[in-house]
């Protein structure tokens, strides 16, 4: 579907954009017609990744991407989450920050949710980025499907969590810019933990059934 009027003219930055999730989201946002800045610790790697993607995508450092984006998606590994956001807090002030990080551990039994002192990765982001509006979204979307250039649509819903209605509405629009995806309001940011943790269940489903399972909300 066409991007909403609320999204027109906005630049989306993806921090950690050279990883599978960030790269896949950047691909889909650019294909929808949005301007995308793909951030990385390594600017050259970001530039090479951006060149391989369709649409208006350019590579930059994470700091440059944070400064350039109107909406900034955080898709970095959990281990570096707090450190990066603390460093970039001044550049992210006044912006909508979309956190899609899942704090997960892995052992011989598979994936499991980690305990986060603030409650969730999204709440940690909000605690650090006091000058930003933090929204949680895109936690349960398969990077494999996002990155597949042969798939025109992605069959999934995206739960959007946050405390600011204008921001969650805009991020729902961002999700809906990806054909086949709906952005569904999933509650306040305090409810982000179970959405992040559910990714561990989806990983178990995918391993058992050799699939790329997503989430659909019925009767909405």
UniProtKB/TrEMBL annotation:
Annotated ranges, domain Pyrroline-5-carboxylate reductase catalytic N-terminal: 11-103
Keyword vocabulary terms for this entry: Oxidoreductase
UniProt xrefs under Pfam families: F420_oxidored
Superkingdom of the organism of origin: Bacteria
PANTHER family named among the record's database cross-references: DUDULIN-RELATED, F420-DEPENDENT NADP REDUCTASE
Name of the protein in question: NADPH-dependent F420 reductase
């Amino acid at each position: 579907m066409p991007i909403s009027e609320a999204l027109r003219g906005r630049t989306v930055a993806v921090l950690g954009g050279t990883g599978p999730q960030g790269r896949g989201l950047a691909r889909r946002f650019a294909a929808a017609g949005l301007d995308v800045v793909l951030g990385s610790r390594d600017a050259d790697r970001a530039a090479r990744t951006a060149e391989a993607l369709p649409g208006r995508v350019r590579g930059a450092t994470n700091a440059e991407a944070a400064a350039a984006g109107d909406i900034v998606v955080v898709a970095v590994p959990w281990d570096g989450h707090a450190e990066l956001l603390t460093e970039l807090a001044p550049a992210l002030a006044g912006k909508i920050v979309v956190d899609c990080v899942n704090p997960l551990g892995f052992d011989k039994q598979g994936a499991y949710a980690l305990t986060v002192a603030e409650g969730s990765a999204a709440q940690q982001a909000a605690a650090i980025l006091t000058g930003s509006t933090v929204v949680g979204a895109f936690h349960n979307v398969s990077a494999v499907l996002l990155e597949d250039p042969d798939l025109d649509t992605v069959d999934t819903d995206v739960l959007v969590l946050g405390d600011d209605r204008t921001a969650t509405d805009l991020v729902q629009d961002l999700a809906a810019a990806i054909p086949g995806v709906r952005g569904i309001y999933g509650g306040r940011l305090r409810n982000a933990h179970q959405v992040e943790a559910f990714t561990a269940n989806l990983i178990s489903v995918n391993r058992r059934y050799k699939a790329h399972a997503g989430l659909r909300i019925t009767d909405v």
